[in-house]
Amino acid sequence: MISTIGNYRYEMMDPLWTTQLWNAALERQLTDVDIYVGRKLLMEAHQVILSARSPILADLLSKMKKHNGKATITFEADIDSYTVQHFLYFLYTGSSKVHFSNKQFLTLANMHEVETLSEVCKLAMVSSPDVDEVTNFLLANF
Protein backbone atom coordinates (compact mmCIF):
# COMPACT_ATOMS: atom_id res chain seq x y z
CA MET A 1 0.00 0.00 0.00
CA ILE A 2 1.47 3.33 -1.07
CA SER A 3 -0.08 6.76 -0.66
CA THR A 4 1.27 10.15 -1.69
CA ILE A 5 0.02 13.51 -0.43
CA GLY A 6 1.92 16.56 -1.64
CA ASN A 7 5.50 16.24 -0.41
CA TYR A 8 4.66 13.31 1.87
CA ARG A 9 4.74 9.67 0.93
CA TYR A 10 3.50 6.81 3.06
CA GLU A 11 4.45 3.23 2.37
CA MET A 12 3.84 0.21 4.56
CA MET A 13 7.10 -1.27 5.80
CA ASP A 14 8.66 -3.51 8.40
CA PRO A 15 8.84 -1.35 11.55
CA LEU A 16 11.62 -3.46 13.08
CA TRP A 17 14.36 -2.84 10.52
CA THR A 18 15.43 0.53 11.91
CA THR A 19 15.52 -0.75 15.48
CA GLN A 20 17.43 -3.85 14.45
CA LEU A 21 20.05 -1.87 12.51
CA TRP A 22 20.55 0.61 15.36
CA ASN A 23 20.79 -2.18 17.93
CA ALA A 24 23.38 -3.94 15.74
CA ALA A 25 25.55 -0.83 16.02
CA LEU A 26 25.01 -0.48 19.76
CA GLU A 27 25.80 -4.16 20.28
CA ARG A 28 28.88 -3.92 18.00
CA GLN A 29 27.63 -6.59 15.63
CA LEU A 30 29.99 -6.63 12.63
CA THR A 31 30.83 -2.95 13.09
CA ASP A 32 33.77 -1.62 11.11
CA VAL A 33 33.95 2.06 12.07
CA ASP A 34 34.94 3.57 15.40
CA ILE A 35 33.19 6.89 16.08
CA TYR A 36 35.00 9.38 18.29
CA VAL A 37 33.99 12.77 19.62
CA GLY A 38 37.27 14.45 20.32
CA ARG A 39 39.40 11.73 21.92
CA LYS A 40 36.50 9.79 23.44
CA LEU A 41 35.14 6.69 21.73
CA LEU A 42 31.40 7.27 21.37
CA MET A 43 30.30 4.07 19.64
CA GLU A 44 30.92 1.79 16.71
CA ALA A 45 29.04 1.89 13.42
CA HIS A 46 28.71 0.23 10.02
CA GLN A 47 30.58 1.75 7.09
CA VAL A 48 27.91 0.69 4.60
CA ILE A 49 25.16 2.57 6.45
CA LEU A 50 27.22 5.72 7.00
CA SER A 51 28.35 5.69 3.37
CA ALA A 52 24.85 5.14 2.02
CA ARG A 53 23.41 8.02 4.02
CA SER A 54 26.14 10.65 3.60
CA PRO A 55 28.22 11.33 0.49
CA ILE A 56 30.81 13.09 2.65
CA LEU A 57 31.20 10.09 4.95
CA ALA A 58 31.25 7.78 1.91
CA ASP A 59 34.12 9.75 0.38
CA LEU A 60 36.00 9.92 3.67
CA LEU A 61 35.59 6.21 4.38
CA SER A 62 36.56 5.15 0.85
CA LYS A 63 39.90 6.99 1.15
CA MET A 64 40.65 5.99 4.72
CA LYS A 65 43.23 3.44 5.72
CA LYS A 66 41.84 0.92 8.17
CA HIS A 67 43.61 -0.06 11.36
CA ASN A 68 42.87 -3.63 12.46
CA GLY A 69 40.05 -3.77 9.90
CA LYS A 70 38.33 -0.67 11.25
CA ALA A 71 38.06 2.90 10.06
CA THR A 72 37.94 5.81 12.48
CA ILE A 73 35.75 8.88 12.19
CA THR A 74 36.35 11.72 14.63
CA PHE A 75 33.89 14.52 15.26
CA GLU A 76 35.19 17.75 16.75
CA ALA A 77 35.17 17.87 20.55
CA ASP A 78 33.09 21.07 20.53
CA ILE A 79 30.12 19.13 19.12
CA ASP A 80 28.06 17.58 21.89
CA SER A 81 28.46 13.78 21.91
CA TYR A 82 24.72 13.45 22.62
CA THR A 83 24.01 15.30 19.36
CA VAL A 84 26.52 13.20 17.42
CA GLN A 85 24.89 10.00 18.69
CA HIS A 86 21.46 11.28 17.63
CA PHE A 87 22.88 12.31 14.25
CA LEU A 88 24.07 8.72 13.82
CA TYR A 89 20.68 7.49 15.04
CA PHE A 90 19.07 9.54 12.26
CA LEU A 91 21.43 8.02 9.69
CA TYR A 92 20.41 4.55 10.82
CA THR A 93 16.68 5.06 11.32
CA GLY A 94 15.57 8.19 9.46
CA SER A 95 14.01 9.47 12.68
CA SER A 96 15.11 11.48 15.67
CA LYS A 97 14.75 11.39 19.42
CA VAL A 98 15.86 15.02 19.74
CA HIS A 99 14.12 18.11 18.46
CA PHE A 100 15.08 19.03 14.91
CA SER A 101 15.64 22.67 15.91
CA ASN A 102 19.00 21.71 17.46
CA LYS A 103 21.58 23.93 15.70
CA GLN A 104 24.39 21.38 16.04
CA PHE A 105 22.08 18.81 14.43
CA LEU A 106 21.70 21.14 11.44
CA THR A 107 25.46 21.77 11.37
CA LEU A 108 26.16 18.03 11.24
CA ALA A 109 23.49 17.54 8.56
CA ASN A 110 24.97 20.29 6.38
CA MET A 111 28.56 19.25 7.01
CA HIS A 112 27.84 15.67 5.94
CA GLU A 113 25.31 16.56 3.20
CA VAL A 114 22.41 14.66 4.73
CA GLU A 115 19.79 16.57 2.75
CA THR A 116 16.65 15.22 4.41
CA LEU A 117 17.89 16.00 7.90
CA SER A 118 19.09 19.42 6.79
CA GLU A 119 15.71 20.31 5.31
CA VAL A 120 13.78 19.06 8.32
CA CYS A 121 16.06 21.00 10.70
CA LYS A 122 15.65 24.19 8.66
CA LEU A 123 11.86 23.83 8.77
CA ALA A 124 11.93 23.22 12.53
CA MET A 125 14.03 26.33 13.11
CA VAL A 126 11.65 28.66 11.34
CA SER A 127 9.93 30.39 14.18
CA SER A 128 6.42 31.72 14.01
CA PRO A 129 6.28 35.48 13.66
CA ASP A 130 5.61 37.49 16.79
CA VAL A 131 1.92 38.48 17.01
CA ASP A 132 2.79 42.10 17.91
CA GLU A 133 5.15 42.36 14.93
CA VAL A 134 2.49 41.08 12.54
CA THR A 135 -0.15 43.39 14.02
CA ASN A 136 2.13 46.43 13.80
CA PHE A 137 3.09 45.54 10.21
CA LEU A 138 -0.56 45.18 9.18
CA LEU A 139 -1.57 48.44 10.87
CA ALA A 140 1.32 50.31 9.30
CA ASN A 141 0.77 48.98 5.79
CA PHE A 142 -2.99 48.60 5.37
From TrEMBL:
It comes from Daphnia galeata. PROSITE patterns: BTB. This is BTB domain-containing protein. It comes from the Eukaryota. SUPFAM superfamilies: POZ domain (SSF54695). Residues 31-100 form the BTB domain. It holds the Pfam family BTB.
